[in-house]
Design goal:
The protein is an alpha+beta fold. Helices cover about 20% and strands about 30% of the residues. The protein has one domain: Carbon-nitrogen hydrolase (Nitrilase/N-carbamoyl-D-aminoacid amidohydrolase, 4-Layer Sandwich), CATH 3.60.110. Helix 1 packs parallel to helix 3. The longest helix has 17 residues. It starts with 6 loop residues before the first strand and ends with a strand.
Length: about 280
Amino acid sequence: MRPMTERTMKLAMIQMRVEPGDKAANLRRASQLLADAARAGAQVALLPEALNTSWTDLRARTLADVVPDGETCSVLRQAAQAHQLHVCAGLVERDPHDRLFNSAVLVGPDGKVLLRHRKIYELEIAHEAYALGDGLAVADTKWGRIGVMICADALAPGHVISRTLGLMGAAVILSPCAWAVAADHDNAKEPYGQLWRDHYGPVARDFRLWIAGASNVGPIHTGPWAGRRCIGCSLLVGPDGQQVQGPYGEEAETLVHAELTLAPRPARGDGWERLLPGKKPVML
């Protein structure tokens, strides 16, 4: 078995303001924030869910585009290559059959799409807006395998989506998110984030991996959650209970930086770890 060494990944969780239905403004803002993340030393940048249009915004029917060569994905690919970043971002995707998907891409520093994920465990209220995905994937990087899910995928019964990514060897799971609260939510009385800690924590612990969710900020104008506010609170949870959380608020656009210490897992057939819920790693 080849020896493994610990490596440090410098991650930026980007709490980007997403303007509902304003694709051009959102792509300009994403490009600028990716440049800011790179200047601050990030190696991997995580952007929110549906950043080109906003989650369930009705204008997505005309604004969504294809992967990998549509406008949104092309802007992300160009930024990744220009700044030598791995970029994970959520976008509303149109497929060749004119179906819309709530998707995410992981792009390498060479500008190539390493994987695309289409959200599987979408909230029922969004089923009319988006078709559902039917697969999971991981990508090999110099830090080990990275898996991608989107927001409520983490809430699937039994954590089946995030645990499957763990069984596929992910050392890090990146999750573009859009975390929203009612307009009158009082964060002093009900601090936001426990739901995600409850779902990220057990998987991070059982599989000895990191899970990062980056949420946007800003209002939701149309769709089933019209009137709610996206409030950031981007969250990173580590295998030993480490946590980093971004600020709360509709105006809390910021970069949340963190360093992840990783011991990349070997591939199957080379000492791959079999990790079962609640159990210690067993080397096969």
